[in-house]
Specification:
The chain has about 80 residues and is mainly beta. The protein is about 0% helix and about 55% strand.
Amino acid sequence: MPKKILKGIVVSNNPDKTITVEVERKYQHPLLKKVIKAKKKYNAHDDNNKFKNGDKVSIRECKPYSKSKKFEVIGDIK
């Protein structure tokens, strides 16, 4: 099974070697046919503390680093 790759914006880099990435997706409501934006936050492993708030990054699913950290940073998006 391929690993999930998501793109989002860093909203927090407070804990050591961890960033919080907010990923936004759009989908159409099945009955109302209205396009809805949904946001979700993921904790990702940032080994070098390289990324700051506001950076656009891509994250990949990986082995769990902790209870809530199941993603790692691939790199930034230009």
